[in-house]
Every structure is written in C-alpha cells, then in structure tokens.
Amino acid sequence: MKERQIVLKQDILKSLNDVGLRKGQTVIVHTSLSSLGFVCGGAQVVIEALIETVGEEGTILMPTQSWKNLDPSTGVHWEEPEEWHDIIRENWPAYNKDITPTNTMGAVAEMFRKWPGTLRSDHPARSVSAWGKHAKYITENHDLSNIFGEGSPIAKIYELDGFVLQIGVGYDKNTSIHLADARANYKSKHNCIEHSAIMENDKRVWKVYETLFVDGEDFEEIGKSFEENCSVNKGNLGNGILTFMKQRDIVDFAVRWIEKNRK
Where do the domains of the chain lie? Predict the structure, then answer.
C-alpha cells in the first residue's frame, strides 16, 4: 500500500500548471479530496489554487448536484423503507440554490458552491456552480428537462471550448460524457419522468418533469478507450492522479463510442 502523502498548496499549483491549466481557461473540475492524501488546508487550498491558476478571465465549474431531491422510487433514498416514500415526497425541502447541500459531490464542490462570487444553476437535482468570467452565462436558464443537453451548462462549456480536469477521480465522475449521451443516437436511448421539490409561485410543489435517462455505467470504459486513442495530460498530486483534457475531445469521442457500442 502506498504511503499516504502530504499535499501543500504549492504542490497543487505546480501540478495544475504541469497538466496544462492556464490563465483564462474555462474548466469543469471533478475532485476527490481524500484520494490525494493529506491536503494541508483541505478543500479551501484546492479552490484557491484553481482560482489563482485560471485568474479572473478564467471560469471554474463544479457539479453541485442534489440528487436526493428526486423521487424515492428511483432509489435515491435506498436506505429508507418504502412505506416512508410518500412522507418523503410530501416533506423533502424545496431546492434553494443558496442552501441546498450537495450529495456525494465531495468536500471541494460543497465548499465551492458557497465560495465568494460563485453562482449556482437552478436545477433542483443536477445543478452546477461556476466562478469567473462566464459564471453567469453558464449557470443561467438551466431548464428542468434539459439536464445535460444543448443549452445546458455542460453544453456551454463545449461552446466556450473549455476543458475537463479530474483530480483524483475517474471517468465515472466526468459529467461531460452526459452531453455526449444527449447528442448520440442509439436504440436504447430513452427519456424518463423525474420529480423534485421546487418553489413555484412562492409555494413548495412536487414537480413532475421529463428528461433524458441518466446513465453513466459505461463511462469508465469510454474513458479507457479515450485515453488509448486521444491526447490526455496526466500528472501526479500526492496519492492521486490529475487528468486534463479538452472537453470537445472527450465529448466528440464519446458520441462515436456510444453510437458504436451501446445497444
């Protein structure tokens, strides 16, 4: 077993520079703090290093999903008995982008959603947060039924020719592949009905909406094939690995892979 490493802010800055993160870039970041070892300063120094690297002309995004705010029948409350499902539907708090916590997004994303200057999109279950030059544009008009498709925050990164940075995580966390899913044509592609608690006309409602079925089971396989065929920058940080790529590259590759391999 590899000895646990200590990671300082200057180590993070160096690793970000080594993999190619630069001033003015737009980047969506996926992070597992615990995978890096002991980060001296925790989530705070990771965010500071990212901001210092891209600067005010750059833009940083992170998924800040609150998917517990979905219907319990989908399995998001798997630990609770089925006889509680109606009670959960009637009482789960309405999404509030200033208050609602993230679910399993990690300590960095949870801190980032309230970082000074950060904006958060309005989707009650699949929000993103953004800081920097394009933060307002990226987070506005996040339609209930358009989680990851055209016009969504993820598609806006593609439009801005942005990047994806994985810090200590794999491609199963790479939200940009969902955009490829939305763009690809394959026989098993289908929509689903979702429900979330939202505020509508100053009242809490259990909102019904239709959206593309979210499936990421083959994302790791897509990532493996992508790295075998395309340019990806890799670097070490503590006990973890940084993976940096152009978002257009992974999305375009994933569209082709999905159309060829999904049945």
Answer: 6-70+96-187+216-261
What pLDDT does residue 1 have? 63
- Rounded to whole angstroms, the Cα distance separating 197 from 63 reads 19
Q: How far apart are CA 169 and CA 178, in angstroms?
A: 16
DSSP, res 230:
S
Stated as kind and residue range, the H or E segment containing 123 is none
CA proximity to 220, closest of 261, 174, 260: 174
* DSSP calls for 51-83: HHHH-TTSEEEEE---TTSS-GGGTTTTTS-GG
Find, among 140, 141, 139, the residue nearest to 130 by Cα.
Answer: 139
Report whether 238 contacts 6 (CB < 8 A). yes
35-55 tens-digit pLDDT: 999 999 999 999 999 999 999
Give the pLDDT confidence of 1-39 residue by residue, as tens digits: 679 999 999 999 999 999 999 999 999 999 999 999 999
* Helices 176-183 and 219-229: angle between axes, nearest 10 degrees: 90
pTM exceeds 0.90, yes or no: yes
Q: Percentages helix, strand, coil for the chain, rounded to the nearest 5? A: 35, 20, 40
Tell me how far apart the alpha carbons of residues 183 and 177 are, in angstroms, rounded to a whole number.
10
Does an H or E element contain 52, and which? helix 42-54
Contact by Cβ (8 Å): 125, 197 = no
Q: Which two tokens stand for residue 250?
A: 């992974």
Separation between Cα atoms, residue 155 and residue 162, nearest integer Å:
10
How far is Cα 148 from Cα 248, in angstroms, rounded to an integer? 14
Please state whether beta strands 59-63 and 203-212 pair in parallel, antiparallel, or not at all (unpaired): unpaired
* Number of separate helices (H) and strands (E) present in the chain: 9, 11
